[in-house]
Structures are given as structure tokens and as C-alpha cells.
Design a protein that fits this description.
The complex is a heterodimer of chains A (215) and B (278).
Chain A (H helix, E strand, L loop, with lengths): L2 H37 L5 H14 L2 H11 L9 H27 L2 H9 L4 H31 L11 H12 L3 H35 L1
Chain B lengths: L5 H18 L8 H7 L1 E6 L2 E2 L3 E4 L2 E3 L1 H12 L3 E6 L2 H9 L5 E7 L2 H4 L2 E3 L8 E6 L16 E4 L4 H13 L8 E4 L2 H9 L5 E5 H10 L4 E6 L6 E6 L3 H16 L2 H10 L14
Parallel strand pairs in B: 1-5, 1-6, 9-10, 9-11
Antiparallel strand pairs in B: 2-3, 3-4, 6-13, 7-13, 8-11, 8-12
Classes of the chains: A mainly alpha (215), B alpha/beta (278).
Chain lengths: 215, 278
């Protein structure tokens, strides 16, 4: 394995990071939006979201990305590999995030809302000051868990031609007939990425705890 | 994680791809006139099938990539190239996402029902490869009951009956068949003694043994005649003729034999067309 090969894997790492960060950034608020639609029991949309979540949670990511990549052109929409991959990741993670957010919302004591209403807080203010800070704390471990799963799901997108860490390693192994060294390099990249994510979780949790102690 | 075993993946793929291919009936792959009008042809190649196509230092290399380069000079339109792992290649061609797969796709009877093939690009009779230090395998009949590694969805699966027939002559039979997502993994497991032999085309195996002469040793042929070719969507006869004319021109001007010598170690005398018997 040459230096160029290691650089190739790092190039793949950029793709993995880009897709993961974009997938998380899109999937997190999308999941929250879906969860709020269900929590608020918005007529018509509530059952639609329920069906969406059930369908997406039952669909393997590899099936979803193949469908988006190979079937959408028939409907006149042609996506590039990275776009199709990102779309599949986002649709997938939004469904799982929705359930994490929803669990946190269901866990929120009703008296919190009622107390906020009694002091005359409007819907938007209530959401910003009472609901979101509390559900963010309960949902955090579940959300981080889903994020780390998402990062490790990105190799699946290779099937439509996305070259992530794992695919770059596979290509090098195929060329040198020695798959082990590139896979070790790949692992050495995944571990710090997920470790950084978990450290961020601890940092946010500590900050939240400090803020509460101060309040 | 059970969902990543080759078997499940294959089942998931085929369950998805059948309706996909049917749905795609509406979206035709472009015929030659449309390709000329829009000004480009979309070709798809593989990324880990040495020596036909692979990636070296981040750049595509191999026999088919150099043929694509020759096609760029030959064709009056632009060539757009996409690089994909094997599982998506035939699906992409069948759904019309790509006009042609410039890859080493073995011509089989089954595949000719849904795809049209170009003229053969190489001779790919199947051989077995074994560990060099494994003295229990000396000829075909020693393969009786031994564990074999092959690539998932590769044409060899449909050719297993040929080896079965060879073994049956001496009262033997094929042992456990292990399927891999790609050949490099199959070779690795052979080296690790998880399997006893791997079956692939003589070209791929010669490249492997040339690279690792201390580990692997080439065995004997386990199939009849076999040719890889490029695949297009069924019924795209003008494109097929265009590609066959291109191949004929590259044979005549010596480019194709030279590339075969460079990548496969020998040049082949190939027929202009071939109808697979199995």
C-alpha cells in the first residue's frame, strides 16, 4: 500500500464526513418536524407521517438508494450518486430521528405546557423556552446513537458509485490483492470520527447540567 | 449483522431489481440517433475487477479503461464515464441509466435474455486457483467435496453444473459454495484457508498468481468456452452495431491485440459474435 493509497482513503473520508454531516444537519430538524406533526396530532399529516416512518424504517438503506438512483430517472428525475446517497441517508435518518424526538415529546410532562400557558406564553415562545430545551436533553443520547449509526451506514451508498472510506479501501485491496492494510487504515479513520461525536455529546450534556445547576 | 450476508444482499437486490427493470420499460436507453443528437454516450465501468478495470492511485486503469480511451478517439460524440461496484452495473444498464457497460461481463444464455452483448473482448475460460502449499489438490477430481469461493451474482454460479458434471465422472460432487461480494475477498479467504479453491476466469487468475506467486497456484480449466463482452440494453441494435464496428476497427488497427497482450499477457483470436450455449 503506497502513500497515494492512504491519500485515496483520506479522500474517501472527506466524502464520508461530508455525507454524514449533511445527512445529520438535514435529518435532525426534519425528524423533529415530523415528530411535532405527530405529537400535535395534525389531522391528515399525522397518519401520513406514521406511514412514512413505518415504511422508511422497514426499508434497507441499500434498497432505498438503489431505488432513488435507478428508478427515479424513469420518472424524469436523474440524480448523481452523491445526491441520491444524501437523499437516501436523510430520508432514512429522519424516520429514526422522528421516533427519538417523539419519545422525548411524549415523555414531557403535560403540566409543563399548562404552566407555560397559564403565564400567557404563546405557542412559539412555549416551544422555544419550555419544550425544545427539555426534549433536546432527553433525546440527545438517542440522537447521537442514530448519528453514529448513520456514519457507519455510509459504506452502503457505494453501491451507486459513492467512494467513501470503505469503498476506497476495497478498491485498494482489489488492486494490491492485500485487503487487510487498507481496511486497518479505514478503521483507524472511523474510530476517531465516532469518538469525536460521542465526545461532543458528553460536552453538550455537561454544559446542560452546568446551566441547570446555575439556574 | 445478518442483513449484510451476501445471500441476503443478493435476495434483496433481485427482489428490488425485477420490478425496477419492469418499471424502466418506459424509460428507454437512448438509441444511437438519440445519443448522436444529445452528443454523449454514458458508459459504466467497474472499480475492482483487475486486470479489466480497477483503480490505481485514485485513477481508473486496466484493459477496459484503455478501450474507453480508444473509444473517445473513435466516437463522433462525447463519452461520459461512470464508475460503479459490480452489483449496480447490470441494473444500471437494464434501467437505461447507462447506455453500455464497458466491463467484463460474461456472456451467458440467461443474460442474453435481458441484455445485448458486443463482440467478445477476451477469452475467459474458467480455471480454479488454490493455495500453493495445499498438496491435497492436484487435479479436478481432487476438488470433490472441497469448499469453493465465487463472487455473488457472477456468471460462474450458473456454470457450476459444468464442474459438477466433470466431478461426477469420478463419482465426486461440489462441496460447500461460499459467495463473496467481490473476488478480492474470496482470494483473501482462500489464503486464510477458509475455502479450498476459488473459481474465476483464467485472465483474472493469471493476474492474481503473477502478483502473488508465493501464495496461489493456478489449476486447470473447469468450464467450456467462455467470453466476456460489453452489455447493452436488449433491442438497442444500432448501438450494438456501432460498438461491434468499433471493436472490429480496434482489432484491425492492432490496438486491441496490443492491449490484450499488455493486460492479459496474450492476445486472443476472438469471434465477431458468439451465442452462449449455457
Amino acid at each position: 500500500m503506497s502513500l497515494a493509497d492512504v491519500l485515496t482513503i483520506f479522500h474517501g473520508a472527506l466524502t464520508t464526513l461530508l455525507l454524514s454531516v449533511a445527512g445529520i444537519a438535514l435529518g435532525l430538524p426534519l425528524g423533529l418536524g415530523l415528530a411535532l406533526l405527530r405529537w400535535g396530532q395534525v389531522p391528515l399529516l399525522n397518519p401520513l407521517v406514521a406511514v412514512y416512518v413505518s415504511l422508511l424504517r422497514a426499508t434497507p438503506l441499500v434498497t432505498l438508494v438503489l431505488l432513488l438512483f435507478f428508478a427515479l430517472p424513469s420518472a424524469g428525475i436523474s440524480l448523481g450518486p452523491v445526491t441520491a446517497g444524501l437523499l437516501a441517508l436523510t430520508l432514512n435518518t429522519a424516520a429514526f430521528n422522528c421516533e427519538v424526538w417523539r419519545a422525548a415529546l411524549l415523555d414531557l410532562p403535560k403540566d409543563q405546557i399548562e404552566a407555560a400557558q397559564s403565564v400567557g406564553m404563546g405557542r412559539a415562545l412555549r416551544m422555544r423556552r419550555i419544550v425544545l430545551p427539555q426534549i433536546a436533553r432527553t433525546a440527545l443520547p438517542g440522537l447521537i446513537n442514530e448519528m453514529s449509526l448513520l456514519i457507519k451506514l455510509t459504506p452502503v451508498l457505494a453501491v451507486v458509485g459513492v467512494v467513501d472510506i470503505t469503498r476506497a479501501a476495497v478498491r485498494i485491496g482489489a488492486q494490491t490483492y492485500e485487503p487487510l492494510p487498507p481496511f486497518l487504515v479505514a478503521l483507524a479513520i472511523y474510530v476517531p470520527i465516532v469518538f469525536a461525536l460521542v465526545s461532543a455529546q458528553r460536552w453538550v450534556e455537561r454544559r446542560m447540567a452546568r446551566r441547570e445547576a446555575a439556574a | 449483522m445478518p442483513s449484510t450476508t451476501p445471500f441476503n444482499r443478493r435476495a434483496a437486490l433481485s427482489a428490488l431489481l425485477l420490478p425496477l427493470a419492469l418499471w424502466a420499460g418506459a424509460a428507454q436507453a437512448a438509441n444511437l440517433d438519440e445519443i448522436k443528437k444529445r452528443g454523449y454516450l454514458v458508459v459504466v465501468t467497474e472499480d475492482d475487477f483487475k486486470p479489466f478495470e480497477f483503480i490505481k492511485d485514485g485513477k481508473p486503469a486496466g484493459f477496459n479503461h484503455e478501450m474507453v480511451d480508444a473509444l473517445r478517439k473513435y466516437a463522433p460524440f462525447e463519452i461520459r464515464q461512470e464508475i460503479l461496484p459490480w452489483p449496480g452495473i447490470l441494473a444500471g444498464v437494464a434501467t437505461g441509466k447507462y447506455d453500455i457497460a464497458i466491463s467484463a461481463i460474461l456472456m451467458t444464455k440467461e443474460r442474453t435474455q435481458s441484455l445485448d452483448f458486443s463482440s467478445p473482448i477476451a477469452d475467459a475460460t474458467h480455471y480454479y486457483v488454490k493455495r500453493k502449499d495445499d498438496s491435497s489438490i492436484k487435479s479436478i477430481k481432487d476438488l470433490d467435496g472441497k469448499t469453493v469461493g465465487v463472487q455473488t451474482g457472477s456468471a460462474f454460479l450458473s456454470r457450476l453444473p459444468e464442474l459438477q458434471a466433470m466431478l461426477a465422472k469420478d463419482g465426486g460432487k461440489i462441496g460447500k459454495v461460499v459467495e463473496y461480494a467481490s473476488y478480492p475477498e474470496a482470494y483473501q479467504d482462500l489464503a486464510l484457508k477458509r475455502t479450498d479453491y476459488v473459481i474465476n476466469t483464467v485472465i483474472n487468475l493469471k493476474a492474481l498468481v503473477g502478483e502473488k506467486p508465493g501464495v496461489f497456484e493456478l489449476g486447470q480449466p473447469v468450464s467450456g468456452k467462455a467470453y466476456p463482452a460489453w452489455a447493452m440494453k436488449k433491442g438497442n441494435t444500432e448501438l450494438q452495431k456501432f460498438m461491434n464496428d468499433f471493436i472490429a476497427a480496434q482489432k484491425a488497427n492492432g490496438v486491441m491485440p496490443a492491449l490484450q497482450k499488455k493486460w492479459f499477457g496474450e492476445s486472443f483470436n476472438l469471434p465477431a459474435s458468439y451465442t452462449p450455449e449455457n
